[in-house]
Amino acid sequence: MNRPAAAKAAMFAPEHIGALAEASRRTKKIRRCVSIANFGGWTAAVFGAFSLLGLAFSFSLASLFITVALGVVAWGEFRGAAMVRRFDPAGARRLALNQVVFGAALFIYSVWCLIQGLRGGGISSELASGNPEADAMIANIGRMVNLALYGSLAVVAIVGPGLTAWSYASREKLIRQFRDQTESSVVEALKVA
């Protein structure tokens, strides 16, 4: 057996190892919250980067708005995940609020684009052929696609972040219970691990 590993294992009594294992089992939902927040942060960062790239080719205020919003949301998710990882109950509140901000920004963006599309902007105006009948048909198809796309996005902006915010908010109570019911040395050991 490796000598240093054996010496380290001897430092913990069986009851300490049992307490660590039990505490680790009780943090399953908390650790899942951290994983979801990190995934959400990376997802927002990647979409924000694509949006930033899109700004380089076609600038619009709506694109600038959603790019900045995605950057703020990504930062908030990573920051909240780090707080929850340290068993800080405020991290769960931060994550929940971040999802509310994300949902609001996505909803504003979708309504903004929906209004622009219904006013005649968008791809249908770029595909104008000069034939009034063909242009009217293209405009109608463009409005239907715009309505379906951004209308769906508006619904998703309410439901998705709303449910995620509720889930994050429910973790605050779990974190408080874990901290109250677990020996502080075990909590510190799990923070390091």
Number of strands: 0
Helical run tally: 8
Assembly state? single chain
The largest β sheet comes out as: none
Which structural class matches the secondary elements? mainly alpha
Q: Considering DSSP H and I runs of 4 or more, what fraction of the residues is helical?
A: over 70%
List SSEs in N-to-C order.
HHHHHHHH
- Please tell me how large the radius of gyration is: 24 Å
N/C terminus separation: 23 Å
- Model regions low in confidence, pLDDT < 50 over at least 5 residues: none
Note the beta-strand portion: under 5%
Large-scale geometry: elongated
**Mean pLDDT figure:** 84
Helix/strand layout:
Layout: H1 3-10, H2 14-26, H3 28-57, H4 61-85, H5 89-118, H6 123-126, H7 132-181, H8 184-192
Describe the structure.
The chain has 193 residues and is mainly α. Helices cover 88% and strands 0% of the residues. It contains eight helices and no strands. It is elongated, with a radius of gyration of 24 Å. The two termini are 23 Å apart.
Tag the structure with descriptive keywords:
8 helices, mainly alpha, single chain, 0% strand
How would you sum up this structure in a few lines?
The chain has 193 residues and is mostly helical. 88% of the residues lie in helices and 0% in strands.
